[in-house]
Amino acid sequence: MTTVLVVILVLVLIVGGFFGWYVSASNNIKRAEIKVAEALSGIDVALTKRYDVLTKMLDIVKNYQAYERETLMQIINLRAGMSMQERNEASRNMDKVSSDIRVLAENYPELRSSQNFAELQKSVIDVEEHLQAARRLYNANVTAFNNLIVAFPSSIVASNLGKVQKAFFEADATKRQDVKMF
Amino acid sequence: MGLHEKMEALEAVRRKAEISVVIAGIGFWVLMAFMFTRYVFLFGVLGVVMLVVGATRAKGFRGECQMLYKQLFVEEPLRANFDNVFYDWKSGFSEAAVRSFQLCAMGNRFRSEDYLRASYRGINFEMSDVTVEYHKSNGKSSSTTVYFRGRMFAFEFPGQFNSSTRIYTTQHRYRGAQNTPKIQKVEMESVQFNKDFDVYSTSPHDAFYLLTPQYMEYLDTLSRRYPSMAIHFMGNKLFLGFNERNKDVFDKYDWLKEASYPEEMEKVQRDIDEIKQVIDMFFV
Asked: What is the pLDDT confidence band of residue B230, given thresholds at 50, 70 and 90?
């Protein structure tokens, strides 16, 4: 009788322990996923800010050169529910437009000296720094999440929950260079 | 008073202090020597008097020595190296200010001195020596734990953050309660950095914004020099704490030893250069 009780107790402990571990691992994965989602919204905010500043810059620039503003606006346009690949693409397009505007400003000293333009340039630098921070935070959280779902034994739980690895937000080569803080 | 006169004045006070220490020492040994003899009353009283007088006078001369030392070796170099200098070696940060810095746990004993307010390369800063201890006693025994002993800095920087971000080296143990609302531990992308530092922030985004890879390298370099340190970004303020228990900035190592002008000037200049390096590292 005692032996049966011991066996039952051990089984209860094993099952209970496994259940506890499963719940804990599942919660960890969900928490990590929430962090990724939060960081992703940070990227979206930064991209939107960058889009807004670039739009304002294009408005100023068009007075100096016949710029196909609408086409460019379409290129860098952001929309809801973009995939990571589309976000990467949008970010790369913004890099290109930003770089083109900088080159254009080099050719027009009066544009460079315009106060509005100078302020927008500062804003561009600021939003780009924020975008870098958002990118690094997102990628750090993605790394933590991906590690969690591929490492054994939490990979079993992740597989049951149907979790798959998330894509990183790539940085443009020029953006990989560090930004000056102050 | 010229340099020569000042050095002579310092040396005269030091000699008096030395004599006072010798008197106190002799008093102690007289007391000990006759403690268990029949002359204990006569020599005991003499010993106690010598000990008390010597120790009291030595303490007084030490204060005088410190004052002359600060005037002679510290004030002038500070004015030569920084702008808008205000230096008061007797005062320091208030306890409430240090509490608000959130760089260390607050015990029940607090001391702060060597207050410096100045600007360097357009960066305004304040600095002071701070000691925070926790003393407990149960009537039979007592113990004191040093929570922090070193320098604290407060800088203003041209950025505005609504968040609070704190960075501690893992060797900095007494950090105080994590009393900022919604504070969370932030894991940076560098595994090594996460081993060496603990980052807490109310906004992980701001933590990543502040801690650029270049900045993380700076902190790594800085932590080799100051293994126990704490940093707090709050609003447009940056607070820094270097926990250096065995270092006395702007003070003489051994105040009974005769002061050598070149040596002391070199030491003070080293201390000043360290401050400059910290500012250069963080702001330039």
From this structure: very high
In a domain, B115, yes or no: yes
Question: Can you give the pLDDT at residue A180?
Answer: 40
Dig out the tokens for B153 from the structure.
């800095």
Residue B211: which domain range? 85-251
Nearest to B222 by CA among B244, B250, B242: B242
B chain contacts of residue A144, beta-carbon cutoff 8 Å: 187
Answer yes or no: is B43 within a domain.
no
pLDDT in tens, B166-220: 999 999 988 876 555 678 889 898 889 999 999 999 889 999 998 988 889 989 9
Q: Does A130 touch chain B (CB under 8 A)?
A: yes
Say if B15 falls within a structural domain.
Answer: no
At B189 the three-state DSSP class reads coil
Q: Give φ, ψ of B83 to 5 degrees.
A: -105, 160
pLDDT at A30 over 50: yes
Residue B158 contacts A, CB cutoff 8 Å: yes
Look up the ipTM and state it: 0.74
> What's chain A's length in residues?
182
Return the number of other C-beta atoms located less than 10 Å from residue B24's C-beta.
19
Nearest to A134 among B187, B205, B214 (CB): B205
- The reply to whether residue B158 touches residue A134, judged by beta carbons under 8 angstroms, is no
In a domain, B70, yes or no: no
CB A123 within 8 A of CB A53: yes
Domains in chain A, start-ordered, CATH in brackets?
Answer: 32-176 (1.20.1440.20)
